[in-house]
């Protein structure tokens, strides 16, 4: 159940990484798509450092922010299927 970025999500003080790897020194393998907000990319090392990584059914998910982490934690199966 994806959420709209303007639905209490836009003011939480983080940035999203562009979908393409236009960042110097960032390889596409260093990026992951947030399962809660499809299209929002996160740098895996940053997500790991911020505690925004979850395991569900043997799969690893990197989340873009604490709001998405909270939503994923509440319904992991809903977002893991996305």
Give a quick rundown of the structure:
The chain is of the alpha+beta class. It has helices spanning 44-49, 66-74, 76-80, and strands spanning 31-33, 41-43, 53-56, 59-62. The strands form two sheets. The chain has a two-stranded antiparallel ribbon with strand order 1-2. It has a two-stranded antiparallel sheet with strand order 3-4.
- The radius of gyration over CA amounts to 12 Å
What kind of sheet is the major sheet? 2 strands, antiparallel
Low-confidence stretches: 5-13
E-strand count = 4
Structural class: alpha+beta
| H/E topology pattern | EEHEEHH
Strand content: 15-25%
Strand order within the widest beta sheet: 1-2
What is the molecular shape? elongated
Number of H/I helices: 3
Protein name: YHS domain-containing protein
Biased composition (Basic and acidic residues): 1-11
Organism: Compostimonas suwonensis
InterPro entries: Ferritin-like_SF, RNR-like
Molecular structure report:
This protein is α+β, with helices and mostly antiparallel strands. The protein has a domain at 28-80. The protein has three helices and four strands. The protein has helices spanning 44-49, 66-74, 76-80, and strands at 31-33, 41-43, 53-56, 59-62. The strands form two sheets. The chain has a two-stranded antiparallel sheet. A two-stranded antiparallel sheet has the order 3-4. Mean pLDDT is 82; it is low at 5-13.
Task: Please describe the topology of this protein.
Elements: E1 31-33, E2 41-43, H1 44-49, E3 53-56, E4 59-62, H2 66-74, H3 76-80
Antiparallel strand pairs: 1-2, 3-4
